[in-house]
Design brief:
Among the domains are: 80 residues, no CATH class; 225 residues, Leucine-rich repeat, LRR (right-handed beta-alpha superhelix) (Alpha-Beta Horseshoe), CATH 3.80.10. It is 43% helix and 15% strand. It contains 26 helices and 22 strands. The longest helix has 30 residues.
Length: 729
């Protein structure tokens, strides 16, 4: 008999902990934006052990309706079971009671895939993802905001190791808890060669072994209830096909290649009222023709510092965290990428060496590459040395040609069998677990699990494989060009960091060639920077804007050179760099945090008087500012005439860092709008956004005033609202 509409059908039970996780996220703010359709769904906690999710069934008018509901209820259970299985982070040696905490990558709403704003498809770009997105960010969003998504097609992009798959599984589970039928499909597992129907892609192949009646009933319900469906296609970059130049097909029962099905999903020809989510590396979305591109793009950024620490402690103990925080703050910044976090832990675990021995990216990747080993299915016949040499060859070739994606032919030309390349793994031995991370990903097209591997192997080719004559030509004509920015840092790190090792004659020659040319570059760029400072142009004129862009490019170039010096840890080169340090220097706006260590390494060797050092609007966070301030406070009294730290994201804990600057800055210290609260929010959140000032509170002002009185300086400190603080003695 048909059931009454008010009767509730129990769909499935899931762990109380999973529901609490979603509910906690929804309660973190009173300003959660979730659509009415989602708000109308209810989660009913029955007891401490289990949660029952209830769904209001519309009246069933026939036995076929009843069959559909029984089938869709069963399908929802299958989906939840799949998500529970896939969502677990499986680590070797982990007991069933051990759990990895849920972490939250920072999410940005991007204006990214508009005309003239995208990079060339499959092209190598030395800029990190944060730099790639920095001018395209509209706002920061929260996880729960995505649950109330009003758009019907969104994409989630992120660099390698950022956790796209884990994030998409979390989204799928959250939507399921809110009573949406959510099907999560990994596109790398859906590279079917034979044609198939839309139903086969989403049901028959995803959940095999059920009756024809079950699949028919489920698909019928889905066709009639598309607004209750969420489809997540994970990993467009791992699909073996291109979606260019495909003819639309509106027949959802046609038997066609899988690429046609994916394309028509993107065009919203199938299930137009469903929510479609695609995850990918940024470049792969460019396969989509403009009409098939997502309405909204979200980018996953780094983890928060709090989440970084939580994930870190899941793999290692707190003692290692404290050691890295004390000895190598740069490593903490790199830890905010989950993949890099695991590699950093591995390189420092059970090591008798000082933690600082892995304090640069060059040293870190050199350590990780030593852990390059094979899996149980490893089929290479050559030695690991031969394999490493082959990896270097095709990494250099790909970077030179501007590629991040390698074809099977390119691998064969590089001496690597593409049928076995997927078996190359980096084996990471952590304190509690052992983790295997693939060095290259893909089946027919391949890319390194992190672009930095390609860059490190490219640098290794330049240092260890390239003949001296070719090396000199390469250094003089190419190495310090923008295309090779990250590679140049690794080359400097590998060559300048050789003092305690047995070095061959060729390497010594290369080291001297590189040292000479790097110092020449520092001298040239420093002088050009000072010449730019001396030039003046009419404000807001075309010449002014052109001059501004040129200045920013020069500042960035100078900081890149300092990063090269920092990678090598060679004090003699840092001393030379300090001799050419500009007397007036404005750091880039914003400044990439990975440039801070190199800048600080050079600053330690600066002995000249500086007229002005501006850190204004560099987007410095608490850690980066602390690192810079720790170096400056060791300089001579009054060594910097004027300093500007306006418009950064400092925390209350940075007040002590500011006080440390007072002895070194002689005349003026500008510090407007440079603090946020411990909660990461702007201080005056009730003001209009344009007028939100990160004001100092009275206790902080009193601390600065007391410090000024004690050192009896002529320095004036300009704080918010134009207040000037001076020594009262």
């Amino acid at each position: 008999m048909p059931k009454k509409s008010s009767e509730m059908i129990k769909l499935f039970k899931i762990s109380n902990k999973a529901v609490k996780s979603v509910m906690a996220e929804q309660s973190t703010s009173s300003n959660v934006n979730i659509t009415d359709a989602v708000l109308n769904q209810s989660l009913v906690i029955k007891d401490a052990e289990n949660v029952t999710i209830n769904y209001t069934q519309p009246p069933c008018t026939s036995s076929s309706d009843e069959d559909e509901w029984n089938s869709i209820r069963k399908l929802m259970k299958l989906c939840i079971s799949y998500l529970e299985k896939e969502g677990k982070l499986r680590l070797q040696g982990v007991s069933a009671k051990e759990e990895v905490p849920v972490v939250h990558p920072i999410i940005h709403d991007l204006n990214y895939y508009d005309k003239d704003t995208v990079p060339v498809d499959e092209r190598y770009d030395p800029k990190g993802p944060n730099e790639l997105f920095k001018n395209k960010i509209k706002r920061e969003v929260r996880f729960q905001d995505l649950l109330g998504q009003k758009d019907k097609f969104i994409s989630i992009v992120a660099s390698a190791g950022s956790g796209k798959t884990v994030f998409s599984l979390r989204l799928a589970k959250a939507f399921s808890l809110l009573q949406r039928l959510c099907i999560h499909l990994k596109l790398m597992d859906a590279n079917y060669e034979e044609p198939l129907t839309f139903r086969q892609l989403l049901l028959d192949n995803m959940f095999p072994g059920h009756s024809e009646e079950f699949y028919t009933a489920c698909f019928s319900w889905m066709q009639n209830n598309a607004d209750k469906i969420v489809l997540i296609l994970d990993g467009l970059d791992q699909a073996q096909y291109s979606l260019k130049e495909i003819s639309p097909n509106r027949n959802d029962n046609a038997c066609v290649p899988v690429k046609d099905l994916v394309f028509n999903l993107c065009r919203k020809h199938f299930f137009p009222n469903s929510l479609l989510i695609i995850t990918s590396r940024p470049h792969a979305l460019l396969y989509l023709p403009e009409p098939a591109r997502p309405q909204v793009t979200y980018a996953l950024g780094d983890l928060s510092l709090e989440d970084t620490k939580g994930l870190f402690l899941a793999f290692a103990d707190e003692d290692l965290w404290r050691k890295i925080k004390k000895s190598s703050s740069q490593m903490l910044s790199m830890c905010r990428n989950p993949l890099m976090l695991q590699m950093i832990i591995s390189s420092n675990t059970d090591s008798s060496e000082d933690i600082g021995d892995a304090s640069t990216p060059t040293r870190l990747f050199a350590t990780v590459m030593k852990n390059l080993t094979h899996s149980l299915n490893f089929q290479f016949t050559e030695t690991m040395d031969e394999l490493a040499r082959n990896l270097r060859v095709f990494a250099f070739s790909a970077t030179k040609e501007g590629k991040v994606v390698l074809t099977a032919k390119e691998l064969r030309d590089g001496g690597v069998d593409p049928t076995t390349i997927h078996d190359i793994v980096v084996q990471l031995h952590c304190h509690r677990h052992q983790i295997n991370s693939r060095l290259l990903e893909g089946n027919t097209k391949f890319f390194f699990c992190h672009q930095t591997f390609q860059e490190h192997l490219t640098a290794s080719y330049v240092v260890y494989e390239m003949p001296v004559e070719k090396f000199q030509e390469f250094v003089e004509t190419s190495l310090f060009q923008e295309h090779w920015t990250v590679v140049s840092r690794f080359v400097c790190g590998l060559l300048f960091d050789l003092e305690s090792k047995a070095v061959s004659g060729d390497l010594l020659q290369k080291k001297e060639i590189l040292k000479k040319h790097l110092i020449q570059q520092l001298e040239i760029i420093s002088e050009e920077n000072m010449e730019m400072v001396r030039r003046r142009s009419v404000l807001f004129s075309e010449k002014f804007m052109e001059s501004y862009r040129d200045k920013e490019a020069l500042r960035g170039k100078l900081l890149d050179l300092y990063a090269c010096v920092g990678e090598g840890k060679d004090s003699s080169i840092a001393t030379k760099a300090a001799e050419h340090f500009p007397r007036i220097l404005h750091l880039p706006q914003p400044m990439n945090s990975n440039l801070v260590p190199g800048f600080c390494f050079v600053m330690k060797h600066v002995t000249k008087q500086l007229d002005k050092l501006s850190l204004s609007y560099c987007s410095l966070d608490a850690n980066s500012f602390h690192e810079i301030a720790s170096v400056i406070k060791e300089m001579k009294p009054g060594q910097i005439r004027e300093m500007d730290i306006d418009g950064n994201d400092l925390r209350p804990s940075n007040i002590d860092d500011v006080i440390g600057l007072l002895r070194v800055v002689r005349d003026e210290l500008w510090m407007w709008n440079c603090f946020i609260g411990d909660d990461g929010r702007r201080r005056d959140a009730n003001q209009d956004e344009r007028n939100q000032l990160q004001k100092l509170n009275q206790d902080e002002i009193n601390k600065i005033q007391t410090a000024l009185n004690e050192i009896q300086t002529r320095l004036e400190v300009l704080v918010d609202d134009g207040t000037r603080l001076r020594s009262q003695k």
